[in-house]
Design a protein that fits this description.
- By secondary structure, the chain is mainly beta.
- The strands form two sheets. A seven-stranded antiparallel sheet has the order 2-1-7-8-9-6-3. It has a two-stranded antiparallel ribbon with strand order 4-5.
- The radius of gyration is 19 Å and the shape is elongated.
- It starts with 10 loop residues before the first strand and ends with a strand.
Length: 136
């Protein structure tokens, strides 16, 4: 029988000054993509197309959060995006076991706040371009 894992109670953290810190107010997260590059190695003498897998492109990890402009973690993430030169360390912990984690590092490439309407809350879309990934 297969097991389904609910997203509720998933935790995403970022390392700030050597301290693993929970990112608060997260409402959704994407998975960590890992798309392999296909390299054509077909020779003229081959009767079918031949390929090898190249270096994977880990793509972007995305999260949406209820933005709080006074929250120190949100401020840190936004400042990191503005600096555009710091690879941050993240951990995604699945809710079904504390040892079931994705550890990855990447650059925050987007931190976009809004839009909001009169009955809404400010939300931020955050994108991290992943440059290393270790499942544990």
């Amino acid at each position: 029988m297969s097991t389904s894992v609910l997203g509720k109670a998933s935790i995403i953290t970022v390392t700030i000054s050597a301290t693993t810190t929970v990112i608060p107010n997260v409402v959704s997260i994407s998975g960590i993509p890992a798309t392999g590059t296909k390299i054509d190695t077909t020779a003229l003498s081959d009767t079918t197309v031949q390929n090898k897998t190249g270096i994977p492109d880990l793509g972007d990890f995305k999260l949406k959060l209820n933005h709080d402009p006074t929250n120190t973690v949100h401020i840190y993430l936004r400042d990191s995006q503005k600096a555009a030169a710091v690879s941050e360390a993240f951990i995604l912990t699945y809710p079904n076991a504390t040892t079931n984690k994705e550890t990855f590092a990447g650059y925050i490439v987007d931190y976009n706040v809004g839009p909001v309407d009169r009955n809404g809350v400010y939300q931020a879309d955050v994108s991290v371009h992943v440059n290393s990934n270790t499942a544990s």
